[in-house]
Amino acid sequence: MNRITDVHVHIQPWRDLKPNVLDVMRRGKEQHWELLIAVMDDPKVLLDVMDRSGVWRAGLVNYVSPEVMGFTESTNDFSARYAQANPDRLLPYGGVHPRVTKDPAGAVDRLLDMGIRLLKIHPPHQLFPANAYTEGLTALGQVYRRCEERGLPVMVHTGTSVFPGARSKYGNPMELDDVAIDFPDLPLVMAHGGRPLYMEEAFFILRRHQHVRLDVSGIPPAKLLEYFPRLAEIADRVLWGTDWPSPGVKDLRQNIDQFLALPLSDAHRKAILETNALALFPAR
Ligand SMILES: [Zn+2]
Fold first, then answer.
1. What's the gap in Å between 156 CA and the centre of ligand 1?
2. 120 SS3 class
3. How remote is the CA of residue 214 from the centroid of ligand 1, in Å?
4. What's the pLDDT score for residue 95?
5. How many Å apart are CA 32 and CA 97, to the nearest integer?
6. C-alpha 272 – ligand 1 centre gap (Å)
7. In this structure, is the dihedral angle defined by the CA atoms of residues 263, 10, 203 and 166, taken in order, positive or negative?
8. Burial (0-12, 13-18, 19+ Cβ within 10 Å), 31
9. In 249-284, which positions are buried (b, 16+ CB within 10 angstroms) versus exposed (e)?
10. How close is the Cα of 10 to the center of ligand 1, in Å?
């Protein structure tokens, strides 16, 4: 397979990270920390890592999280600029913080003008549930609405987060039920399948809503079928992702090899690694 898309790689402006978050980020990665710093500064270094791992394209996860992570709206400029090194292979993601922006729809339009391919919502790092628009955060509903109108996919983090200040209670995938009902034409990506607490809720949402896709990043690939024993039932909506270089995720290729060792059909492997992502992010 030579058209693998990893839809979930963290290429972010680490110089903006809060010091206590940076400490957690560095933990366990001391030995290749220099390489990771180089990756964040230079897309050529990432492309080299991708070449060595047999990864064709990577989605560059970015979002605005001033309170917890330290990322401001400039993270969008970082993402767009980084991807310019190879727009065929680097898919820049960005975000709008509904409590920070004064013009939610306009901010989504600006992301599209910059070439952003997906909008990321991170409830535990942005400190609101994914359905907060049902309880007064109207700007969030306006963001979803504009993404739906413009066909911009939205990825929502589900599951826990270990960074200082992250509120994991907002990681429950059930909150995507509202979003999927209220925005029926919005391409939604559920990141991490609620790992490690909410897999039953995650699978319910995925079965109930055909326009919700599962991004398997952050789930140890060798355990994927323990987490989701009925993965084959939704294989046409499962996207490959690693969450590299988040805590515990060491190597792009190691994850692919562990995934390929699972008892899945060749058709499902190809769908998950290659073709499902091509449908969501057509080659340009
Ligand atoms: Zn992630």
1. 10
2. strand
3. 13
4. 98
5. 32
6. 18
7. positive
8. exposed
9. beebbebbeebeeeebeeebbbbbbbebbeebbeee
10. 6
The first and second tokens of residue 252, run together, are: 């792009």
Cα 117 to averaged position of ligand 1 atoms, centre (Å): 16
Q: Residue 274 gets which letter from DSSP? A: I
Q: DSSP assignment of 201-252, as one string?
A: HHHHHHHH-TTEEEE-TTS-GGGHHHH-TTGGGGGGGEE----TTSTT---H
Upstream peptide bond of 245 is cis (omega within 30 degrees of 0): yes
Distance of CA 107 to CAs 23, 57, 95, 113, Å?
A: 31, 26, 9, 10
Tell me the sheet residues that pair with 214.
190, 238
| Regions of the chain where pLDDT drops below 70 | none
How many angstroms separate the alpha carbon of residue 230 from the centre of ligand 1? 23
Report the predicted TM-score, pTM, of the whole model to 2 decimal places: 0.97
Report how far ligand 1's centroid is from the alpha carbon of 8 (Å): 6
At residue 6, φ and ψ (nearest 5 deg) are -100, 105
